[in-house]
Each structure stands twice: as C-alpha cells, then as structure tokens.
Recover the amino acids of this structure.
C-alpha cells in the first residue's frame, strides 16, 4: 500500500475514533444521568470505555495479527500515560480533593475499595506474567468478573 494512502487512512481512523469516543461519552452520560445512574458508575463505564476504546481496538487488532508485544506495549503505555502524565498534569493545573460522597466502614470508599481493587488487578496481571511469561484466558475472565462486581458495588454506594 502506498505511503500516502496509509497516512490518510491513519489520520481518518484517528479522527473517527475520536469522534466516536466523544459521541459515546457525551450521549452515554446523558442517557445514564436520565436513568439515575450514579456518577461513579458513569465514570467507570462510559467515560472509561470512551477513552479506552482506541487501546482496546489496537490491542485486539494486534493480537489477531499475532503481534502480542505491540498489544502489551499499547496497554502498558496507555495506562502509564494516563496514570502519570494525565493525572499529574490535571492535578498540577487544578488540584482537587478526593470526593467524600461515599464511605465504607466510615472511611472514604476510594481508599477502602478503589485502591485495593486496583492493586489486586495489578497483581493478577503481573505475577502470572512474571512467573509464566504469558497471560491466559482465565485471567481475562477473572478481570472481567472483577470489573462487573466493582461496577455492581458502585451502584449500591
């Protein structure tokens, strides 16, 4: 395929992904608010999906084409970028306090639930990968189940 055509398709794909993600986030958020869905669940689903959809598409496409190193690099890179650069820049420009809207055992639910779940997910991904050198379907199913349970708990808070 000629370089010019490849570049045009790359730019077109990036634009369409950005437009699609914005439509998903904006309209999904409006629908969820109309249905009375808590803000934390909206953030965990529509906003997270809209911002992570490009990584998901890239990861699945690269895995289907047999480039697991590209998929893993994309996932790790996107998460490091979001955790370090995006959160660091956001907090630098507009410092904020952790919302106190929900508590568990008298403590902020972000500290009691969110951080331990994040650490557990990290361990589920990294320990088997370090020991065996690969990730498997069971880990994927476990991670999806954890996400579903986490979202369900957010509905009750």
């Amino acid at each position: 395929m000629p370089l010019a055509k490849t570049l045009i398709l790359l730019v077109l794909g990036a634009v369409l992904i950005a437009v699609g993600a914005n439509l998903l986030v904006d309209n999904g958020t409006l629908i969820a608010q109309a249905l009375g869905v808590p803000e934390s669940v909206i953030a965990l689903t529509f906003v997270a999906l809209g911002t992570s959809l490009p990584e998901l598409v890239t990861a699945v496409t690269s895995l289907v084409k047999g480039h697991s190193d590209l998929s893993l690099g994309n996932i790790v890179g996107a998460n490091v970028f979001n955790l370090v650069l995006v959160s660091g820049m956001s907090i630098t420009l507009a410092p904020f306090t952790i919302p106190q809207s929900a508590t568990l055992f008298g403590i902020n639910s972000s500290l009691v639930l969110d951080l331990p779940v994040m650490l557990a997910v990290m361990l589920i991904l990294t320990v088997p990968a370090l020991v065996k050198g690969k990730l498997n379907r069971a880990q994927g199913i476990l991670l999806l189940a954890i996400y579903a349970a986490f979202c369900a708990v957010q509905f009750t808070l």
Remarks:
- The two ends are 53 Å apart (CA to CA).
- The first strand starts at residue 103 and ends at 104.
- The helical segments are 3-34, 39-64, 68-93, 109-132, 137-156.
